[in-house]
Amino acid sequence: MHNLRKLDLNLLLTLDALLVERNVTRAAARLHLSQPSVSVQLGKLRAAFDDPLLLPGPRGMLPTARALDLLAPLQAALAQLEQLLQPASAFEPLTADVEWKLAAADATEYAILLPLLPGLRAAAPRSRMAVLEAVPARMASQLENAQVDLGFLAQEEAPPGLRHRVLFTEHYVLAGRRDHPLLQTTPDLDRFCALEFVVVSPNGGGYRTAVDTALALQGRQRKVVLSVPHFLFVPPLLAQSEMVALLPSRLLKNALTALRTWEAPLPLPDYEMAMVWHERMHLDPGHRWLRGQVMAALHGYGQDSVW
């Protein structure tokens, strides 16, 4: 590596031309350089390799033994460099053998991956996808280390330094079973606090959320009777009990035959759901195609859109 740092890589192109042409004038014409420039570069090559490389002969120049040893590996290395510098090939989803790793919470799987997968499977039938649990604290390192290709989380939780795009704005609604005795009319704050709540605690075992903090500021308290780690467990639980929950509205899209929803009697902040990715994948053709598929599934953009 020390020798490589000292060598102008353009000299290797000159060496290749000289070894093929064995004539300074013809090598200069091939390189679109002047003959004196090629002569100067030959001098630098001789110094770099500590060998004459080319010697005067009766019909041009004769390569030394060292030069002949260099020719095949030199041409192989130049061919690899040429391939390395070619533009990235287009992504062909129909024939691509590719695996994507996505990180998402279970409610996000329902809101984003469920509408995404049918079109993606049809367009890229040889692809595979692994879905990992989204942990905001680990997201940056997972994306940086290629453990995850694309993540989904609330924009406010997105680690700094990552590429991101907001997918939609989500808000929480109060949900309970359709014949719930305390939810036959719009609940006021007193009735809200009298209900028995399920809360989702992704880190496990928590009974308190920002809602409880907001209630405490008003001198109120609700009854939290159950804490679970996942959202998807909650709708069927509500349908067969008198427990209620504050849930993302998109999660309830297909559960409203058994449940009904109300706006909560206190302000609940909306949040923006974003997809996030690392800069190293931003221009990758396959990754750009995948991001376009997400946008197409959620917003009806053309599936060839690039994001």
From TrEMBL:
Keyword presence, Protein transport: no
PROSITE patterns xref list: HTH_LYSR (PS50931)
Family: Belongs to the LysR transcriptional regulatory family.
GO molecular function: DNA binding; DNA-binding transcription factor activity
Taxonomic source organism: Janthinobacterium psychrotolerans
Pfam families per record: HTH_1, LysR_substrate
Record's keyword terms, sorted: DNA-binding, Transcription, Transcription regulation
Annotated signal peptide: none
Protein name, per record: DNA-binding transcriptional regulator, LysR family
Residue ranges occupied by any HTH lysR-type domain in the UniProt entry: 7-64
Statement: the UniProt record of this protein carries the keyword Transcription: yes
